[in-house]
Specification:
CBS-domain, 142 residues, alpha+beta, 3-stranded mixed beta sheet
C-alpha cells in the first residue's frame, strides 16, 4: 500500500500556519480543526508558498513549559526546526513512511509531490491502514 492510498481516503484540506504566527494562534487553529499538527508555511516572494516544517501539540507544550503563559506569544518559527523538513511522497510505501516517523521520532509526515504539499499522513493513519489490510487477509486455521 502507498501513502497516496491513504490521502485519497482523507479530506484534501490541509491546515497550515505561517511561520510568523504565534503559538496561541496555532493552538487555536489545531483546536478549531480538531487536529494535533499543522504544516508550517514559509511565504517567500522568490520561492513562493512552501512547507517549512510541522508544528504540533508537543511544540505548544514545550512553549508553555519553557516560557510559562508568555509561551503563547512566541512565534511558530522560534519553535520549529527548519533545517531539514522530513517528508514523503504519495508514491512512497507505508513501510517507508512509518520508518521515517520512527527514525525521526515524529507522528505526522507532510506528503510532497512535485514540490507541492499534497497532504499529511499521521502515525494513526498508517496504523489504521495496516490494521485494515490485516483484517482483509485470509485467516489461517490454528
Amino acid at each position: 500500500m502507498k501513502v497516496g492510498d491513504i490521502l485519497r481516503k482523507k479530506t484534501s484540506r490541509v491546515v497550515t500556519v505561517r511561520m510568523n504566527e504565534t503559538v496561541g494562534v496555532a493552538a487555536q487553529l489545531m483546536r478549531a480543526s480538531n487536529i494535533s499538527a499543522l504544516v508550517v508555511k514559509d511565504v517567500v516572494r522568490t520561492e513562493g508558498n512552501t512547507a517549512a516544517g510541522m508544528f504540533t501539540e508537543r511544540d505548544v507544550v514545550r512553549a508553555i513549559a519553557e516560557h510559562g503563559a508568555a509561551g503563547v506569544n512566541l512565534k511558530v518559527s522560534q519553535l520549529i526546526s527548519v533545517q531539514k523538513l522530513v517528508a514523503c511522497s504519495a508514491e512512497d510505501t507505508l513501510e517507508h513512511a512509518r520508518h521515517l516517523m520512527n527514525v525521526h521520532h515524529i507522528r505526522h509526515l507532510p506528503v510532497i509531490d512535485d514540490f507541492a504539499l499534497a497532504g499529511v499522513v499521521s502515525m494513526r493513519d498508517i496504523s489504521s491502514a495496516f490494521d485494515e489490510a490485516a483484517g482483509m487477509a485470509p485467516k489461517s486455521a490454528a
